[in-house]
Amino acid sequence: MIVTDKKPGHEVIGALANYKKVFVIGCGSCATVSRTGGEDECKAWIDILQSNGKEPAGYFIPDETCHVFLLKSMIRQSQEASPADAFLVLACGAGIQAVSAASDKPVIAGLNSMFLGTTYRTGEFLKYCSLCGSCVLSNTAGICPVTRCPKGLLNGPCGGMVNGMCEVDRDAECVWVTIYEKLKSQNNQKKLVSMNKPRTYNKLKHQKVEPIKLSGKPSVKGL
Amino acid sequence: MSYLSDALENKQFVVTAELSPRKGTQVANFTKTINVLKGRVHAINITDNQRAVMRMSSLVASYLVLKEGVEPIYQITCRDRNRLAIQSDLLGASVLGIQNVLALTGDHPSAGDFPEAKPVFDLDATTLLHTITKLNSGFDLNDHPMKGATDFFAGAALTPQTTPLEPVLMAIERKINAGARFFQTQPVFNVDAFSLFMSKTSHFKVPVIAGILLLHSSEQAMNLNKYVPGIDIPDAMIKRLEASASPKQEGIEIAVELIGKLKGLAGGIHIMTVGQEKDIISIIERI
Q1: B176-196 pLDDT tens trace
Q2: Which strand (E) or helix (H) includes residue A57?
Q3: How far apart are CA A87 and CA A56, in angstroms?
Q4: So what's the pLDDT on residue A211?
Q5: Which of A103, A131, A156, B101 has its CA 20 to 30 A from that of B283?
Q6: Are A65 and A26 in contact (CB under 8 A)?
Q7: Which of A112, A113, A110 is nearest to A9 (CA)?
Q8: Residues of A with CB under 8 A from a CB of B
Q9: CB A166 within 8 A of CB B150
Q10: Which of A148, A162, A194, A196 to probe the B interface (max B CBs under 10 A)?
Q11: % chain A with pLDDT above 90
């Protein structure tokens, strides 16, 4: 679940300065659950556009906005979308870029993409994963220090831990203490003595412009 | 071998002091302080953008210390540089003749004067020590051979008064395995707690230099308790500073008393001040 946050209205209106007719694209998946790009938010933006002197051209909400082929066909078929000067997209970065890839029209982002969230209960998300591409969870009791330590440390705790709390946020537990406690409950705490090697950022193949095809089977290459 | 490593090996009671480079290019006062400390300390620690506040480079300031004839302990944090920059600075430091390095993770940028800066932390204290060990063996972090190895005496920091202690002890063991050959601690104010800590770490057989932070007022002590991670100044000490007609002098007395008690416990002391470097000498004279 990609958690998104609404951009400040004035920032979005500012980005739309040169466009009159604006078509709104929401997202039926994560942004609907995040309450940032569902039916209610799309309708609210139609009103905001109107009250800011724009001509709202309409809106639609794809099931998944992060799907280029789906977006291409929806944009092609939409009578309201075709006269628009620009698209205002209420979706995550993957969704906004899918719209950009599916159309030649200018694309304006209505949301900030925050993180890959774990749903605690409806409407409440935990920032647990940052999709870093080199998962260390097997060594850290299934608790991610890359995401949950403000320094992203692979070897903690750091000297800033005081009484189990984090140096950056005194109200938050140091994630390395959380990891230690979980490992201890599994009688595995000695793991903390071994050093985790520095992360690799060498993931260039994932930055290719062409789509990456995932095989159906889990890859065992390199094992 | 550095003077510091010889002294620690020969079980001398080591005295180090901490200097922070200034924000700006004027170094006259900095050089003056180095000369006041010359011959009275084993080495001078040079902080690296301490508390995430931007100042002159610790590498250059360490070289200034060396040029004045004093041994620097070049502090490197992982906050501002990635593994390429850190390794390249280390090679440069070695060529300049800097031998002692203190490997630190570093405070988060949110503590300093550029809170919006990108926190790097490509390495951490442990992997930095591991990197230094590699460079000392003639290879870089990715095992590429180098023309000429470094010969660093690497140390690390530790916080003796922390709970829970067990993960901290494990981090110490991990740092020793990665190449830490001495430790300098955060300020010690509670000798009993420090003594207990030392009894739990004596089997590591790595010298521990205990931190002494010079206090100069009760307000300062309360602020340190509030804002600096890992500092816990007992109320009795704060009351002493409050009651004294000369809190600055009282601060020196507290430091001298602490040092007296730490003599049998630690491998040495590391004196820190907050902008009162000239007072370091009043403490050293009474050790």
Answers
A1: 999 999 999 999 999 999 999
A2: strand A55-60
A3: 10
A4: 65
A5: B101
A6: yes
A7: A110
A8: 150-164, 167-168, 176-177, 180, 184, 189-190, 192-199
A9: no
A10: A162
A11: 83
A21 CB contacts (<8 Å, ≥6 apart)? A54, A55, A56, A57, A83, A84, A85, A86
State the Cα–Cα distance between residues B157 and B119, nearest whole angstrom: 20
Top residue of A195, A199, A201, A202 to mutate, by most chain B CBs within 10 Å, is A195
**Inter-chain touch A161–B119, beta carbons under 8 Å:** no
> Residue B157 — φ and ψ, nearest 5°?
-100, 155
Indicate yes or no: CB of B158 within 8 angstroms of CB of A159: yes
Nearest CA distance, B28 vs chain A (angstrom): 32
Provide the terminal-to-terminal Cα distance of chain A, rounded to the nearest Å: 29
Which residues from chain A sit within 8 angstroms of residue B162, using beta carbons? 161-163
Counting residues of chain B whose pLDDT is more than 90, the rounded percentage is 91
pLDDT 10s digits, A43-65: 999 999 999 999 999 999 999 99
pLDDT in tens, A115-162: 999 988 887 899 999 888 889 999 999 999 999 999 999 999 999 998
**What are B107's two structure tokens?**
């405070």
